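Example record for the data management plan.
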Amino acid sequence: MITPAGPGSKAGNRATAERWKILLQRSGHEVSIVTTYQGEPCDLMLALHAWRSYEAIRLFRNTWPGKPLIVALTGTDIYRHQYEYPEQTLYSMQAADALIGLHANVGDDIPERFGNKLVTLFQSADLPEACALKATAETQFFDVCVIGHLRDEKDSLRAALAASLLPANSCVRVSCAGKPHNERWNRLAKQQVRENPRFRWLGELEKKETSKLMANSQILVMSSAMEGGANVVSEACFAGLPVIASDIAGNIGLLGADYAGYYPVGDTQALADRLIRAETDPAFLEQLRKQVGYLAGQFTPEKEQKSLEQALSLALQRCPKNTF
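Corresponding structural encoding:
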């Protein structure tokens, strides 16, 4: 399994690779996770990220033309790199015997000719940590969490900006957990800490602390401008935590077209309106809670494992020179 994120990284690609390794091992497979590939023999390659893993994918396909290849598509693959770097990204899609998409609408956003090798996989939540922790104490705040590295694709400070528009009597407090992608995002986050009394920046948290933050929040905001199917949405649904999400394909493909908690991507005032409604309208908050609870069943490890096996089976079937 190829991933651009090295050991110890808290990037989503690394977490996905580590989880998939466990699920595939449960099915009896032997799995190695690597960040570089030198042509070593293996029975099958699963590459996370069509563009970033292009060199490894090309080398594998040229060195082992008769062996199956699976490529898992990220949000940047689908919504940016296939247009900015079409030669590399589309090569990886074409070379793959099976593609994995992480939300239900990926097929609408990649070239139609690849649709027959696409497997939809919903990432699963971590049950022990996502669900077992309970809120520790009553608070005077209506706590909103934003979880993910601070970068342009995540539109990471949109909830903070929205909170600054709320009326003085609002109790909304936004807690952001994530590492800044660069110095610009570091400056922007620190500026919000100084100027926005409704904002807390918690930095990069360990898994247990992130789960505790979710357990002590009333709402999770998923504000991304570009997303391939965020695992934190799965975790929120599994934990019964209502989500307010930007209306991008990557969120709609997880939460469904009829989900009540969307706002137009990048629209600060619309997000502020959703936040104040969630804080002041118990019926709306309960509607969101029921909807995520209903969705939780699609984010189980068992279903994710089954989807991985489906991708392996499809790759084996489609590999033109299958030696198995």
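Summary line stored alongside the record: Strands lie at 45-48, 69-72, 98-101, 118-120, 142-147, 172-177, 199-203, 219-222, 243-246, 262-263.
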